[in-house]
Amino acid sequence: MNKLIEIRNLTKNFDDQQVLRGINLDIHENEFLTLLGPSGCGKTTTLRIIAGFEDPSDGEVLFNGIEISKLPPYKREVNTVFQKYALFPHMNVFDNVAFGLTIKKTEKLVVKQKVDRMLKLVGLEGFGNRDVTLLSGGQQQRVAIARALVNEPKVLLLDEPLGALDAKMRKEMQAELKNIQQEVGITFIYVTHDQEEALTMSDTVVVMNDGDIQQIGSPTDIYNEPENRFVAEFIGESNIIEGIMIEDYLVKFDGVRFQCVDKGFENNEAIEVVLRPEDLDIVSPDHAEIVGEVKSVTFKGVHYEILVETDKRIYMVHTTDYSEIGLWVGLSLGPEDIHVMYPMGSY
Amino acid sequence: MKKKKHIFSGLYIALCFIFFYLPIIITMIFSFNSSKSLTHFTGFSLKWYQELINNQEIVSAVYVSVTIAILATVISTVLGTVTAIGLSKSRKFLKEYLLNVNNIPILNPEIVTAIGLMILFSSIGIAKGYMTMLLAHICFCTPYVITSVYPKVRSLDPNLANAAMDLGATPVQALTKVILPLIRPGIFAGALLAFTMSFDDFVISYFVTGNGVKNISIIVYNMTKRTNPTINALSTIVIVVIILILLAVNIVPILKKSKERKFEG
Amino acid sequence: MKHFKHLTKPYIVWSFILIVIPLLLIALYAFTTGGNAVKILEFTLKNFIKFLEPTYISVFFKSVKLGLLTTGICLLMGYPLAYFISRFKDKTQDLLILGVTIPMWINLLLRTYAWLNLLADNGIINNLLAMLGISPISMMYTDFSVTLGMVCNFLPLMIIPIHTSLRKMDNSLIEAAYDLGANRIQAFRRIILKLSMPGVLNGIVMVFLMSISTFVIPKLLGGGQYLLIGNLIESQFISVGDWNFGSAISLLLAVIILISMRLMKKIDPQED
Fold first, then answer.
1. What are the structural domains of chain A?
2. B132 in a domain, yes or no?
3. Which of C1, C26, C117 is the closest to B116 by Cβ?
4. Which of A69, B265, C35, C168 is the most exposed place for a label (fewest CB within 10 A)?
């Protein structure tokens, strides 16, 4: 895939705060890329800089090899879907969607064709005459998407577009957005703080925190091979334990040596291990390397969340089997369930 | 019980309204009196209106009042609207400063504003006359426009202009196609307020004008000693015009709304 | 959009020249002597001290007295009117309030002049009295005529804030009071009156401040010799030519009013 946008050493300061600390990122054609992170991590700022609503303090943004950070937004081939939709209240659905084309003085017939086609794509066929202020959140969302896409941009920027919708609507829209992206075949840059959303829709996830990129990878990579504690904690639940990498494929933590599938660390290097709760099983204590007492059992619908206290720490386990509180149990895990990463503070 | 209450309150309201409107009504009635007398209505006549038109001084005063009001309204509406839009995107410090300074002509007693401007013009050395009156009017009208338009601007989604530019509009296009249509009610209200403040003004005009330039208020002020029926004629015309404008402004929107409902239904 | 913030630039310059500088000039004149032409910067409090002389301080007291009188009358007349209006249906209320505000839009001088028709020695009221056989009363150029003019002019300023606060009142509060055993007078006193206080205060401050600073009405209806603070300031600038003294009084007036407005905003932070 070709590189469409290259971000080099992007830095942004607001008054005294450094919001972006020199980030580097490549975005490709046809890619669904998500910027994921907590509030204040810089993801929205990055998006706004790509769109042209903010100027970077330092660094550059290349679009097809050309520096665009000095270009005003109306000269860039990107379009934005805003968090609160920013629909023009004094225009109906048709005029809203047609706005970009009208500005370019496109022929009326062509405008009608394109707008109608776009409304059909987003499932709002026949809505042209409606008052935008009277539409539901989901409908307004689709108008915003149609309004942006009708201009056939190379890149669509979406700033937490599903935040204002209820859970069910959000799930539906997630699937629809993914479909639209694949059908239209353009790059989507998506911003969200919801890690489940990011894992569901993206080809690439960029995890950010405090102005820095923590990890870039596919959803499975991010989930299964978090590179540091922040990513491990932000994505899914995790048990994080300090340990030592004795040698390739052998790790020691909580006083026990385990076979694992990671390598490339120095011998006896201090590391951290991530164990996902759903990878742990509760077994009889006789055959287990790690033993402890069941402290709590919470029914979560999909699974039970069971906390097991060993002499070293409390482990979180997700399992469909019920256990009784107070029971003395063992925890079992296989080599592929152990994910080794560099300890916090060393990157 | 309720009926009684309504009668009593209705009566009181009627009395108060008589108090408000009596002088105005008397003026209007006697403007058509064929004699100068205020005692008897001797007959219906338009002679005071005739004298009004022939009185060069009064006619030029009306000309001054009207032209200054129109010019001041147009300029202050443009200046005020532009400033209100800029204010919404300004940094906090500037916003506070401008809003406070903007309030000064509104809160200050007119005479203080008038004196200040008079001293300013004499210090700079500008000869008092039409120009100074115009500048002064723009000065006290603009704050009213800003206080009308600014809340409207603030109520808009902050990303609307961004959205327009994102879709290819230049800043000017974003302004004219998106922002201005949405704040139009505020602009109209501000313009109307500016026109009235200007047309109605006496104190400030009195202090900053000179060289024989007079508006309606100043002419009337100079004729305080006697009751002159020509003034009654003038008053009647002004009153009728203003009431018509006010009714138009207040009733037309109501008419529009019921028309729209007919279409939707 | 970041571009738009530059739109404020023209007004920044304009407001500085035409609003800030005049105020500074007034302050400058107030604290110096030396007249208009030659600016001898001799800083002094002489002008303020002059104000304490009996001739001038009596003007101050007269203005305050008249202001209080006007405010009191406006309150007594205005509150019931605002209250009665608030009892009607919404649409009717809008119309009635429009009726109250229309006079305000008509040129002040024309309105005040209209009173001359009524109050003059050979005016309508006196003629009516003559018809009834009563001897004419001289009403012009008295405290009475000035107060009458001020009340007529400022009454709407009292009515509108009171009406606004009454209108906003939640009817269910009054019903709750009745439900808990209050009779009409008690409900009025304890609930309605108390809740309309912000509007009342607003009205009182507005009317009082406007009435102590007015000068047109006293001039027209009070005659040349009738002096309130506003007239005093005018005479200093137009006839006497003591700009310094005039500025000092203006400064005092401006400061009193600006401080009162600030206090008002603190008590009732409603923004219109």
1. 3-224 (3.40.50.300), 237-341 (2.40.50.140)
2. yes
3. C26
4. B265
Query: In chain B, how many domains are there?
Result: 1
Q: Tell me what the pLDDT averaged over chain A comes to.
A: 91
C38 pLDDT band, cuts 50/70/90, is low
- Domain around B188: 49-264
Whether B25 is in a domain gets the answer no
Decide if A86 touches B, using CB distance below 8 A.
Answer: yes
Which pLDDT does position C271 carry in this prediction? Answer: 43
Over 70: is that where the pLDDT of B183 sits?
yes
Q: Is B5 inside any structural domain?
A: no
CA distance B99 to chain A (A): 23
| pLDDT tens track for B110-159 | 889 999 999 999 888 888 889 999 999 999 999 999 999 999 899 898 89
Task: Give domain status of residue C100, yes or no.
Answer: yes
Domain membership flag for residue C221: yes
C110 touches chain A (CB under 8 A): no
Whether ipTM tops 0.90, in short, is no
Task: List subunits contacting chain B, requiring 3 or more Cβ pairs under 8 Å.
Answer: A, C
C1: chain A residues, CB-CB within 8 Å = 53
Range of C130's domain?
55-228
- C185, part of any domain: yes
- Per-residue HEC secondary structure of chain C comes to CHHHHHHHHHHHHHHHHHHHHHHHHHHHHHCEECCCCCCCEEECCHHHHHHCCHHHHHHHHHHHHHHHHHHHHHHHHHHHHHHHHHCCCHHHHHHHHHHHHHHHHCCHHHHHHHHHHHHCCCCHHHHHHHHCCCCCCCCCCCHHHHHHHHHHHHHHHHHHHHHHHHHCCCHHHHHHHHHCCCCHHHHHHHHHHHHCHHHHHHHHHHHHHHHHHCCHHHHHHHCCCCCCHHHHHHHHHHHHCCHHHHHHHHHHHHHHHHHHHHHHHHHCCCCC
C251 occurs within a structural domain: no
Residue of B nearest to A54 (CA): B162
Q: Domain count of chain C?
A: 1
**Residue B153 maps to a domain:** yes
